[in-house]
Amino acid sequence: MIKAYLTWISTPYEGEDMEIRYRIFKDEELIVKESIFEEYTKPALCGLVSMSKLLKELEKHIKDEIVVVINDGALFEMLNGTSRTKKEEVQYLGHKVRKAIDKFYNIRIENISGNHLEIQEWSNILKP
């Protein structure tokens, strides 16, 4: 089983880079530890951009059982198609990311935003 942890750090200032961090484990063994800097992205799009980067990395394991752990309720809603946002950019990118997720055979997105113990573990795993 593949387990991936994802986070991003954005700034509200235009022109500053956004950092995407993810860790990928296969059977509890760390196989990928990545920290990528991307061009400025609007804060509403950061989660979707980060998820698309992670999905590109996970394509190597497309037939494996995959769990992606995030700490963002808004992103979770966008990925499930239940977001009520009216922003066209967000809707468009959300649709693209959902199509990318559909290519995987067995993937599950897990939102831990309500569980403090899991948030602590998620935070420790994603430290630089």
Q: What Rg do the Cα atoms give?
A: 14 Å
N-to-C span: 24 Å
Structurally, the number of domains stands at 1
Shape: globular
Q: Mean pLDDT score, rounded?
A: 94
CATH topology: the name is Nucleotidyltransferase, domain 5
Largest sheet: 5 strands, mixed
Number of strands: 5
CATH superfamily: Ribonuclease H-like superfamily/Ribonuclease H
The number of distinct helices, counting runs of at least 4 residues, comes to 4
Q: Strand order of the main beta sheet, please?
A: 3-2-1-4-5
Strand coverage percent: 25-35%
Q: Tell me the structural class.
A: alpha/beta
The CATH architecture classification is 2-Layer Sandwich
Helicity, as a percent range:
25-40%
Could you walk me through the main structural features you see in this protein, from its secondary elements to its overall organization?
The protein has 128 residues and is of the alpha/beta class. The chain has a single domain, classed as Ribonuclease H-like superfamily/Ribonuclease H (Nucleotidyltransferase, domain 5). It is built from 4 helices and 5 strands, in the order E-E-E-H-E-H-H-E-H. The protein has a 5-stranded mixed β-sheet with strand order 3-2-1-4-5, covered by helices on one side. The radius of gyration is 14 Å and the shape is globular.
Quick gist of this model?
The chain is of the alpha/beta class.
Keywords:
single chain; 128 residues; alpha/beta; Nucleotidyltransferase, domain 5; 5-stranded mixed sheet; 5 strands; 36% helix; globular
Question: Which secondary structure elements does this structure contain, and how are they paired or packed?
Answer:
Layout: E1 2-9, E2 18-26, E3 29-38, H1 46-58, E4 65-70, H2 73-80, H3 88-102, E5 106-111, H4 116-125
Helix pairs in contact: 1-3
